[in-house]
Design brief:
With 642 residues, the chain is of the alpha/beta class. The protein is 55% helix and 11% strand. Helix 23 links the parallel strand 11 and strand 12.
């Protein structure tokens, strides 16, 4: 007997349909609680995006909820607005104009605060969010035109096409619709080129910049989007309560929002809903239960929340949602087919396409081979210099000093098209520092650097990537929890052009399918096609290094910098890597390799430069280097003569 497979997406739709069918039958108190859960979850979803995925902790989201609520409350009740309101326009438009005003005010405030505070890192950023959260809270209570601590009452209900949403039962439907749309849009965003860029912010900003991502701009955009979601929640709250005062927007409530995101699962969108439901229901029960047990009144539920947070962080460091999702999968496995769903569990949706696009992608995957690469998405790198004799990369007397330590002392090195140039030297010789200088991660104190014919002094790493420089890292920098395919697709960030809005509305699917096709081709080229859907952090160190190389190649670089690419590889894997590097050299790439494996270096390199104590002591062919007395004395110790 055949059975229709049940997917998480279908299960979600059925659950929402069941909720809609039961909604008219629920008691008024239950409806009110359910509406509150939806409002809290909208804010928590923004915190999941900002804190759990992009790596920016905020305690001040309640202040943005207040901005949305107060903006609409003021607009709807101000006598000044009433005096100039055109009689021809119905007053039912005022709350909707209040929404626009709240979004505009929140956008401006969040942009200013983000520009001022997101430059900070570590514990300084959360402390700043506490500071401006408190400031906005006291501002609400001390402005007379906002009603002071008494607040503003008499707000009109929302009206849609003549239908009044005065009751929580009616407005709760709108709140849940807004929540579902927000989760859908955020899931689409994370399942896109821009979503990979957002995830890279938490993993490593240095790596993200080297992929061509403007990390400062991305952080502000994430911060503003989370603030706008909070503002929408505040607007709905104001017109559901028909009254606002500063109390619901205090720092304590901001901490509760963060609790909801962390307890539910700060890296999973559905964790926002789970955490909001759990905290809201617990709060409702504990507010009645704890005073009776303790024989005194007070906010004892805050203590319970703190204990709950400790337990969750100890037992469920990723929040409750991943464990719940795994348990549900085991329980329902006889009845459903749990394919990955970007919005359901935070698992990758990057490799999924549907319909004709998916079939075309599958056919293309079957044809992938190193001789027949897919066509480029967009030109990602400028053409080679007109004079092929000119180096792709030319570093002249680069100097970098840290206090009294000279890490690089007037180091010069050039790299030409179709060349593999090795940079070797003992530990502490300054190789990694030099790599950072020529890739824009660090800035030299002196010297000149020319990449693809352009002077690069003082430019950030993303500008180096834009000109066609790709690199790997000495210490592997991957999105460890994400699939290998998604990691490689991150390298093609510069190839796409679809922005946030197109991603949220799923208008980027054609571009995304093409990007993933190229990522699969690079994966196959590097011999890791069997690991496409494995989490990158689960691979061996050697395999992770190969993933980094494939990610760099996905950006179609002209210059490739590889920092110890053979470290952790077995003999056959090194041979495969050498074959790949020779193929890339034949395609015209300039490859600069830092490596400690001398047999590997002498096999692949056309030229070798040797550093010792930050200075160049030799440069030439592998044969020349093996016979150079300075190299033998300072570094090799005669090993290569054996």
């Amino acid at each position: 007997m055949s059975r229709v497979a049940m997917t998480p997406r279908k299960l979600t739709v059925l659950s929402l349909a069941a909720l809609a069918a039961c909604w008219p039958l629920l008691p008024d108190f239950t409806v009110s609680v359910m509406a509150s859960i939806a409002l809290y979850a909208i804010v928590a979803a923004g915190l999941v995006l900002m804190t759990g995925i992009a790596g920016m902790t905020s305690f001040g989201q309640a202040a943005f909820v207040g901005l949305g609520a107060y903006a609409s409350a003021w607009l709807c009740t101000s006598p000044h607005i009433a005096a100039v309101w055109p009689p021809a326009l119905p007053p039912t438009l005022l709350p909707w104009l209040g929404l626009l005003l709240g979004l505009a005010v929140t956008l401006g405030v969040a942009w200013v605060l983000g520009a001022a505070t997101l430059r900070l890192s570590g514990h300084y950023l959360p402390l700043c969010t506490i500071a401006w959260g408190l400031s906005l809270y006291f501002l609400f209570g001390n402005l007379e035109f906002l009603g002071g601590h008494t607040g503003i009452g008499g707000l009109p209900p929302l009206t849609i096409m003549g239908l009044s949403l005065a009751s929580p039962r009616a407005l709760g439907v709108l709140a849940w619709v807004v929540l579902m749309l927000a989760l859908w849009a955020l899931a689409n965003l994370l399942d896109s080129r821009e979503g990979r860029a957002i995830r890279a912010l938490k993993s490593s900003r240095v790596m993200a910049e080297s992929m061509g991502i403007d990390t400062a701009r991305q952080r502000i955009r994430v911060f503003v989007l989370a603030a706008l979601l909070a503002s929408v929640s505040g607007w709905l709250y104001a017109h559901m309560q028909r009254f606002v005062n500063p109390t619901p927007f205090s720092l304590n409530i901001g901490i509760e929002y963060l609790f909801m995101a962390v307890v539910g699962g700060s890296g999973h969108l559905w964790g926002a809903l789970l955490g909001s439901a759990l905290i809201t229901l617990l709060k409702e029960q504990l507010q009645d239960l704890l005073p009776r047990l303790l024989g005194a009144s007070g906010n004892f539920e805050v203590v319970a929340f703190g204990l709950l947070m400790l337990i969750v962080l100890q037992r469920f460091p990723q929040g409750l949602w991943p464990s719940l999702a795994r348990g549900g999968q085991r329980l329902l496995s006889p009845f459903m087919s749990l394919a990955g769903d970007a919005g359901a569990s935070g698992a990758s949706g990057a490799a999924r396409t549907s319909g004709a696009a998916g079939e075309a992608l599958a056919r293309r995957d079957a044809e992938i081979n190193p001789i027949n690469p897919p066509a480029p998405l967009l030109p990602t790198s400028p053409p080679l210099p007109a004079d092929s004799r000119e180096p792709l990369l030319d570093a002249r007397e680069m100097t970098r000093q840290f206090g009294g330590l000279i890490a690089n002392d007037k180091v010069s090195l050039s790299l030409h098209a179709g060349e593999i140039h090795a940079l070797i030297g003992p530990n502490g010789a300054g190789k990694s520092t030099f790599f950072n200088l020529i890739s824009g991660v660090d800035r030299p104190d002196d010297g000149q650097l020319v990449l693809m014919g352009q002077a690069m002094a003082g430019k950030p790493a993303r500008e180096f990537a834009r000109l066609g420089l790709g690199r790997s890292f000495q210490h592997v920098k991957l999105l460890a929890a994400r699939p290998v395919l998604e990691n490689i697709a991150l390298g093609a960030y510069r190839s796409g052009h679809a922005g946030w809005l197109r991603a949220m509305l799923r208008l980027d699917r054609h571009e995304e399918a093409a990007t993933l096709t190229r990522a699969r081709w690079q994966l196959a080229r590097c011999g890791l096609q069997a690991h496409a859907e494995d989490a990158a952090g689960e691979l061996s160190l050697g395999q992770q290094r190969i993933v980094e190389i494939a990610r760099a190649l996905a950006g179609e670089p002209r210059v490739l910098l590889l920092d110890e690419p053979a470290a952790g590889l077995r003999h056959l894997e090194k041979r495969a890597l050498a074959t790949l590097l020779h193929q890339l050299r034949a395609e015209g790439l300039g490859i600069l390799v830092v490596e400690h494996d001398m047999d590997f270096v002498m096999t692949i390199a056309d030229r070798v430069t040797v550093l010792n104590f930050g200075a160049v002591i030799a440069s030439g062919t592998p044969a020349q280097i093996q016979q150079d007395p300075a190299v033998l004395d300072a570094y090799l110790g005669g090993v290569l003569d054996e």
